[in-house]
Amino acid sequence: MARIPRKLLFDPSEVGVYHCINRCVRRARLMGDDPYTGKSYDHRKEWLVGRMAELAGIMACEFLGFSVMDNHFHVIVRNRPDLVAGWSDEEVARRWYRLCPLRCDTDGKPAEPTEADLGMIVNCPERLAERRMRLSSPSWMMRFLTERIARMANAEDQVSGRFWQGRFEMIRLLDEAAIAACLVYVDLNPIRAEIAQCPEESQFTSVYERIGAARESKEEKVSGTVS
Description:
The chain is an alpha+beta fold and about 230 residues long. It has a single domain, classed as Transposase IS200-like (Alpha-Beta Plaits, 2-Layer Sandwich), CATH 3.30.70.1290. Helix content is about 50%, strand content about 15%. The protein has a 4-stranded antiparallel beta sheet, with helices on both faces. Strand 2 (about 60-70) and strand 3 (about 70-80) form a beta hairpin. Helix 2 runs antiparallel to helix 7 and helix 4 (about 90-100) packs across helix 5 (about 115-120). The longest helix is centred in the C-terminal third of the chain and has 21 residues, at about 205-225. It is globular, with a radius of gyration of 19 Å. The termini are far apart. The model has no long low-confidence stretch (mean pLDDT about 90).
């Protein structure tokens, strides 16, 4: 059965919640422990989690949940076109150049755009509208997420070609019950795969991050009470 075209699932003008999944090529364990070579690629999971945090600070996409497995990952994301609508034209241009810089500094980080650079977007209504839409698009978020990891992994292995198997899957979650059920499913992936015994041990998942944040908050409160 053919997949439903993504344009029929996703309306860029509406706030929605989506479950996105992508797998490594041939479902090889390119982000975990390779059973054939014995080599561990767990650090690539850290790359992916770090990139999600970076994109959350640039795009109008909220990461509600995630889990990074040995050969695939899950992301639950809410797009926020309503937030992008409140950004100024210059803000849209600056954020876009952080994702697609025209130049980089000597340390490899995006260089600050010039007034002329900003003008190429701000002074072109069609280009500005397109960039504004893309900054809240789950599809573009997945593109920026997966491309970076693929390039880093290929450079590390000194190879070229596909890292991901291809087109990612995207499912729209229509109500709070569906979102809650999907969050549980995603967070418990490592336990079902017998990678972890409990959520407290499920690294590279949103539940692991939430537990860690809750513990830190509790320790700060206790420390403040003692002092």
